Amino acid sequence: MTDSPVQIDSPVTVKRRAEKQAVRDAAAEEDRVEAEEREKRSKEREAKRQAQEEEARREAEEVAKKAAGRREQLEASANEAQKFGQEELQKSVNRRRSNSREKA
């Protein structure tokens, strides 16, 4: 059975490893911060998009309500005009009948 020799690193090697690890750690931290910022911007864009959609929906509902109100007004006016026309027609028919009776 042979003993494997224990390797003892020199202080320079240890220092280089520590520096390399520090660089990797700093890069990982920078990546994490950038990822958080991207996620934050993504959430902000999504919230803005949803707010715009909600505003567009409210505006569409408002326009639909106004259109429905205007349609009701137009229908009421049309009904009124039709009723007036029927009344005038009936008056005309009654006058003609009355005139026919008077002539007869």
- Shape descriptor: rod-shaped
The proportion of residues forming helix, as a percent range, comes to over 70%
Strand content: under 5%
Number of helices: 1
* Secondary-structure class: mainly alpha
| Spans of at least 5 consecutive residues with low confidence | none
Q: Could you tell me how far the N terminus lies from the C terminus, measured between alpha carbons in angstroms?
A: 147 Å
The beta-strand count equals 0
Order of helices and strands: H
Q: Tell me the Rg in angstroms.
A: 44 Å
Average residue pLDDT:
92
Walkthrough of the structure:
By secondary structure, the chain is mainly α. The protein starts with 10 loop residues before the first helix and ends with a helix. About 90% of the residues lie in helices and about 0% in strands.
Compact summary:
By secondary structure, the protein is an all-alpha fold. 89% of the residues lie in helices and 0% in strands.
List keywords for this structure.
single chain; 104 residues; mainly alpha; rod-shaped
Secondary structure elements and pairings:
Blueprint: H1 11-103
